[in-house]
């Protein structure tokens, strides 16, 4: 259930070659809601709802506005083919999207007709030392070689007073069953997408974020049911969001 594979902000890339190749191979049908990224299409509305809630609260934005992010700079790290970057741009943000797979960036650029999005190939270091009001990194950290260094890179891209929003699967028996045994086993998610041993618990990820100098302001669960699909939840057993501020 990942949007990409990315590197850390160190001089030595931590892109895992097989991960980048895996997601690059899926780029062609990224925007097909019934294709290999179907799960991401179902997940995206909940992601956007959570992000909108967090930015409205933090920045004191107009909850009724169609373009609340006007004047804000947003960085989406591990953007894939732009499934999150495009709606963020439509909300008014000046968006930069970074992804390790050149194939995904090519599809993103081609799909973003009428939208001005700065797409770049690479890891978080491709931000070039710039800082952003909002940094998003969803379903990505479980695919990097050095999560601690990666989080430091993300934190370094957050402007003073800005927000970081992360999401990732929890390392629990439920996530192993749901994401690997069932989702990958039945082909709902491409096989080989996840390595359960790389999943981080909320306590582990919260610790990395705090060590990187940010303050965690919210931890929220993401649940799934066959009838209702994905929804925000008090339970972090499957997947979760973390929001942090500088």
SSE arrangement:
Layout: H1 17-24, H2 38-59, E1 73-77, H3 85-90, E2 94-99, H4 102-111, E3 117-121, E4 132-138, H5 147-156, E5 158-169, H6 173-184, H7 202-211, E6 215-225, E7 229-233, E8 239-245
Parallel strand pairs: 1-2, 1-4, 2-3, 4-5
Antiparallel strand pairs: 5-8, 6-7, 6-8
User: What is the CATH superfamily classification?
Assistant: Vaccinia Virus protein VP39
Overall tally of domains: 1
Q: List how many beta strands DSSP finds.
A: 8
What's the story with the biggest beta sheet?
8 strands, mixed
CATH class reads Alpha Beta
Mean pLDDT: 91
Helix and strand composition category? alpha/beta
Order of helices and strands: HHEHEHEEHEHHEEE
Helix content: 25-40%
Uncertain runs with pLDDT below 50, 5 residues or more? Answer: 4-13
Globular, elongated, flat, extended or rod-shaped: what is the shape?
globular
What is the CATH topology descriptor? Answer: Rossmann fold
N- and C-termini, Cα separation: 28 Å
Number of helical regions: 7
The fraction of residues assigned to DSSP E strands is 15-25%
Strand order of the largest sheet: 3-2-1-4-5-8-6-7
């Amino acid at each position: 259930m990942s949007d990409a594979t990315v590197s850390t902000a160190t001089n030595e890339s931590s892109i895992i070659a097989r991960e980048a190749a895996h997601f690059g191979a899926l780029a062609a049908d990224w925007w097909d809601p019934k294709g290999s990224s179907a799960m991401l299409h179902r997940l995206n509305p909940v992601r956007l709802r959570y992000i909108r809630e967090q930015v409205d609260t933090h920045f004191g934005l107009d909850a009724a506005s169609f373009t609340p992010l006007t004047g804000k700079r947003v960085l989406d790290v591990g953007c894939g083919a732009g499934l999150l970057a495009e709606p963020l741009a439509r909300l008014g943000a000046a968006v930069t999207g970074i992804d390790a797979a050149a194939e995904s960036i090519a599809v993103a650029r081609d799909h973003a007709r009428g939208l001005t999005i700065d797409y770049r190939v690479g890891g978080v270091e491709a931000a070039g030392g710039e800082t952003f009001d909002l940094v998003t990194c969803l379903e990505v950290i479980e695919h990097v070689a050095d999560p601690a260094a990666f989080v430091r890179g993300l934190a370094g891209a957050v402007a003073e007073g800005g927000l970081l929003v992360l999401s990732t699967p929890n390392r629990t028996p439920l996530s192993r069953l749901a994401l690997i045994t069932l989702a990958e086993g039945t082909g709902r998610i491409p096989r080989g997408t996840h390595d359960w041993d790389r999943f981080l618990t909320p306590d582990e990820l919260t610790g990395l974020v705090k060590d990187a100098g940010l303050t965690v302001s919210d931890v929220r669960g993401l649940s799934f049911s066959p009838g209702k699909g994905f929804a925000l939840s008090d339970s972090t057993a499957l997947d979760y969001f973390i929001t942090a501020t500088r």
